[in-house]
Specification:
The chain has 12 helices and 11 strands. The longest helix is centred in the C-terminal third of the chain and has 19 residues. It is elongated, with a radius of gyration of 21 Å.
């Protein structure tokens, strides 16, 4: 167990640097905050690099709850990885307005597109592809929705907000550890060509697309593409789509937030497949 009281402490500095998405991605580590989310990690046998507690009553309360829920003596099992931060240092590290006294420093699962596609070979598959979605809150919410609706993976373009952004981690509510996520390095169009060769149908969300009310996208292997909050999908991405769909809107709103639109489209895809028995 380590007790850290100074902002000059080397370990505290390494934790604090992770608040930067660039540094977090470089070190392949994220900050997971809150009792529920840390307990979820432990329950799923995801071992944190460090467990960080606030050295006050909130931190002690968090420790007691975690040990009760997980039935694990955290002090005994991870003693060398447990840190107690002075309350003013924990406040600096926390992203929450009212923190719960515990943070995990953890390494998210990492895999390549080839590894994901190999794992899905010979089975039905639904993937979500995000192109240039800038807001980390939207990205985290879409990852969470894909996880909840049973999608098999999420593909993030190079210009999409990274999973290493603390706001993406928070919005995903733990789903970045539940669903395979691939941060792409290649152009979306090149990726689309590879996916099509493997039998995937590329479905684009587009305000000029076919009315979703006239039929749901259905295929044994399907990729739903969602684009930038303001501009939507690029012309290049639309060009490689096998079909484009739009959500019918009867009110006066001209468009939906990308996370809301993605949730509707993913649900319609899943609902259509369940009716077909896919």
């Amino acid at each position: 167990m380590r007790i850290i009281e100074s902002a000059d402490n080397t370990l505290f500095k390494s934790f604090y640097r992770l608040k930067s998405p660039h540094q977090s991605k470089k070190e392949r580590l994220v900050i997971v905050e809150g009792i529920r989310h840390v307990a979820d990690l432990i329950d799923n046998q995801i071992e944190p690099d460090y467990l960080v507690f606030s050295n006050d009553e909130r931190g002690k309360h968090a420790m007691n709850i975690l040990e009760g829920e997980t039935r694990i003596s955290l002090s005994a099992v991870t003693n060398d990885k447990v840190c107690w931060l002075a309350p003013h240092l924990f406040e600096r590290l926390s992203e929450m307005k009212t923190h719960q006294g515990v943070i995990a420093i953890v390494r998210p699962p990492s895999l390549t597109l080839a590894e994901l596609l190999d794992a899905l070979e010979g089975s039905t598959a639904r993937l979500l592809l995000l192109e240039d979605v800038q807001d980390p809150g939207n990205v985290g919410t879409l990852i969470r929705t894909a996880d909840a609706l049973g999608f098999n993976g999420v593909l993030l373009s190079a210009s999409t907000a990274t999973i290493y952004n603390p706001k993406t981690v928070a919005a995903s509510m733990g789903s970045i550890f539940h669903i395979p996520i691939v941060e792409l390095r290649s152009d979306v169009c090149l990726i689309a060509d590879d996916l099509k060769r493997l039998g995937y149908v590329m479905v684009a969300s587009d305000i000029e697309g076919d009315n979703l009310a006239s039929g749901r996208p259905q295929a044994p292997k399907l990729v739903l593409m969602m684009g930038n909050e303001g501009k939507g999908l690029s012309e290049e991405a639309l060009a490689v789509a096998d079909l484009s769909v739009r959500i019918p809107m009867r009110g006066k709103a001209e468009s939906l937030n990308v996370a809301s639109a993605g949730a509707i489209l993913m649900w319609e895809i899943v609902r259509g497949e369940s009716k077909l028995g896919v």
